[in-house]
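Our collaborator T.R. sent over the components below with a one-line note: 'Predict the complex.' Nothing else. No constraints on interfaces, no templates requested, no preferences about which chain binds where. So this is a plain run: every listed entity goes in together, and whatever single assembly comes back becomes the starting point for the next discussion.
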Amino acid sequence: MGRATAAALLAVGVVLTAVAQVLPLYSSSYTGGVEVVVRAWGTTIINKPGDWPAGELSPTYGIPLTVTAVIAALAIAALAWRPEVARYAALGGALAQVGALGVLVALVMSERGHAVGQKGASFDFGIGLVLLVVATVVATAGAVGLQREAA
Amino acid sequence: MSRRVQAVVALVAAVALALWGTTRTLSYLSIQFGLDQPRSEFFTTAWRTNFGGPDDPHSPLFGASIVAAALLLVVALAWPKKGKKLALAGTAMLAGVVAMLLVYLENAIAFSRDGNLLVDPALRAGYGDGIWFLLAAVVVAVAGTVLHPTWD
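Returned assembly:
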């Protein structure tokens, strides 16, 4: 894989990660029309019942994802003048995103298990999660490609 | 002690800390639902969540990602020629796991506390020592990666 191809893959990963952050990661529906929609920067509860627990169960998953995407973007920017630094930054950013995504997928699968087990509840994976998985795979391929290109 | 030996020691320590961290408590909630009730203890590790009684059958398996990152560090140890890059990859992955865990746990702990203060104003909720083992693993893994002598 050439440097341009690897950099392009990394760039696609960055863009997809950015887009994924505004789209739903998953949603679960419950009786009474209650729907919980989880995005990277917050959770929206539609038709929230009066007895809904106080406080916000709304982790900002977007923070680590933004950091990893920024590292990957900086790696692309640094390719022209510090290629060795760019290669390490690309590898670090992409693999950090793999780790962050691993935790997110574990949480989503747990939530799915809880929702599917409840009577009258349903669960849907969101397009944001799909994009995030694709982004992470593509960015990792680009980062690995940059290492091979260096050899 | 040579730089290579220092790197090996640090990476082995990082793997051990990370794996040990998966077995320890990441967060907990200790609450009393009534004056005449016994105190209830809830906790989360990287492998199981317990709300009292049997474990939650849908516990999030954070440990899988931690083990995968630790495996990358082991491969870095076993393959010295590519060791530095593999160590970087494993360290970055572990850092990503811990960063996302912190984001999740911080919110979950606040939610547990805020949502139950009316039930038990004296409740206790916070991080367990598992998160400190994982953070230590990241720091030691960074040291191991920096100390690793083989750039290629």
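Summary for T.R.: The first helix of chain A runs from residue 3 to 20.
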